[in-house]
Amino acid sequence: MSEMAHGITTGAVARRLGVSPTTVRSWDQRYGIGPAVRANGRHRRWSPADVAMLEEMCRLTASGVPPAEAARAAQRERPATDTAEPEATAGPITTPEPQEPTEAAPPGKTRRAGPGSGLPLGDVRHECRGLARAAVRLDGPAMEGLLQEVLAKYGLVTAWEEIMAPTLHAVGRKWESSDDRYVEVEHLLSWHISTALRRAAVTGPATASSAAPVVLACVPAEQHTLPLEALAAGLTEQGLPTRMFGAAVPAEALDAAVRRSGPAAVALWSQARSTANHSLARHVAGTAFGVLGARTAPLVLLAGPGWLGRTPAPGMVRPTGLREAIGVISRLYGEPAGRAAG
Where are the domains of the chain? Predict the structure, then answer.
């Protein structure tokens, strides 16, 4: 008789679904979405019907349905005709696998696991929770589909501010508080968000090729590019021309890029105060170009938390978020936003 006829172990079913064994066990413990029969009355052995139920659970949670609700719906979908019971001697006896550590509950209270696969999400859109669950499961296709869906439904700015960024921050906080675990989750999530943002930038409306562009660059030693990629996509959505130079742009290269492209604005991203280069920002703001008698200098956007703590110098602004940054730059091109001046 086949392995599936007798039921498969938690580790095997987790591999089939692309999730961790801990996730499968936690669904059983928290929501009662476990196998109908257990080998020796204790060890989980998953039948084809059980696996189908878990597949539905994965599908629902990836779409943003809360786990408890998804579990109830998945249990209703369990095929009633599957009556094969695993034999006590079928396959090797499984040993309990270690559970993920959880935070201690306050005295006198029972800790309830919140939705979002243990990530500190707070009060967010249900799509944010779906993206977090897909990320923790390392479910690339689910992340890609959900990101395309939210970009189409909400637009770039809302999708970034209310879904993508909160999920990234939650993964980052989990990583910092869990002894370097979840690094693979952050890397995969960042990759898929970057892919979605670049796709949005490529498929945006045509820009006026004769208009002065917006230069986007991370300051030297700064590797965080996703916020700049979101800004590039948002500007493209408005029909504004951009030039993205990416992470850790050397000062000499940034100076050359500004002088050669003659931008209307330069967005400099700094994630931490240790990378914020105020002398470089002043240099860029003072870089003049154009014909004699009509020389201009770009507006410099000090983007990112690294610039906090100082009042922006003349020729600089410090936007508080993506929406404000797009608004500031759009006004440079005239109204309505999205129509670049020739």
Answer: 3-76, 126-202, 214-332
Contact between 341 and 335 (Cβ < 8 Å): no
Q: Is the pLDDT of residue 311 over 70?
A: yes
Please check whether residue 114 is in contact with residue 101, taking contact to mean a CB–CB distance below 8 angstroms: no
Name the DSSP letter for residue 92.
P
Residue 33 sits at φ, ψ, to 5 deg, of: -100, 65
What top-level class would CATH report for the domain 126-202?
mainly alpha
CATH fold of the domain at 3-76: Multidrug-efflux Transporter Regulator; Chain: A; Domain 2 (1.10.1660)
Q: Which residues of 276-303 are buried (b: 16+ CB within 10 A; e: fewer)?
A: bbeebbeebbebeeeeeeeeebbbbbbb
Closest CA to 3 of 96, 84, 83: 84
Structure tokens at 119: 């990530």
**Reported CATH class of domain 214-332:** alpha beta
Q: Does an H or E element contain 62, and which?
A: helix 48-62
Predicted TM-score (pTM) of this structure: 0.64
Q: What percent of the chain shows pLDDT beyond 70? A: 72
